[in-house]
Amino acid sequence: MKKLTLIAFLGLSTLAFAQKDVKSVPDGGKQKTALIVPADYKELEAKKKAGEEKAKLPKPYDPKADAVADINKLVAQAKKEGKNIMIQAGGNWCIWCLRFNNFVQTTPELKEIVDKNYVYYHLNFSPDNENKKVFSKYININERQAYPFFIILDKNGKKIQVQQSEVLEDGKGYSFEKVKEFLEKWKPS
Fold it and tell me: What is the Cα–Cα distance from 95 to 30, expressed in whole angstroms?
């Protein structure tokens, strides 16, 4: 009798537990093949694709670089060549940073504008090297930043513009027209 009571209790408990789960399903348990995590799957798939894309793109940021010394050299080079300095802030961890670099480097007309008018530098921001000293010279480091962003300096190293990249985006990449307009606007006069 004890075994029968125990089996009945377990059976009813299981049934009650199952009923509770069915009631919490939006369609009352009518759908037999409900997946619990379809949104998570899409997010995981997007992260996987971004990771694959990131693996294929060049990694222009050097966390070990001495950015202060590098920028001092760039100012000397910019003076000599009559160019402005375009600093792209970001890191190799940032898919949008890598996309922008690749877009400019593989689009002949944009690459020509950059090469003719700018000394181009990738300023690293990562756990390995946040470059706080350099960033604090050009931006408020206490404000949250979206990466990449661009710091345009004149040939003397004076900041003339800080530009967020969102306004240059188009879908999962960058707009040729917007990037070209940005590069043309801040080239030396």
Answer: 42
Q: How far is residue 167's CA from residue 188's CA, in Å, rounded to a whole number? A: 22
What is the SS3 assignment for 185?
helix
Nearest to residue 99, comparing CAs of 47, 42, 59, 129? 59
User: Does the global pTM surpass 0.70?
Assistant: yes
42 has pLDDT over 70: yes
Supply the DSSP symbol for 125.
Answer: -
Query: 147-159, pLDDT tens digit by residue?
Result: 999 999 999 999 9
The two tokens of residue 180 are 């070209």
In the chain, the percentage of residues whose pLDDT exceeds 90 is: 70
Least confident of 27-31, 116-120, 121-125: 27-31
What's the farthest any 2 CA atoms get from each other in the chain? 98
* DSSP codes, 50-115: HHHHHHHS-----TTS-HHHHHHHHHHHHHHHT-EEEEEEE-TT-HHHHHHHHHHHHSHHHHHHHH
Report the C-alpha gap between 115 and 94 in whole angstroms.
23
Specify the DSSP class assigned to residue 144: -
How is residue 187 written in tokens? 């080239």
β-pair partners for 169: 174
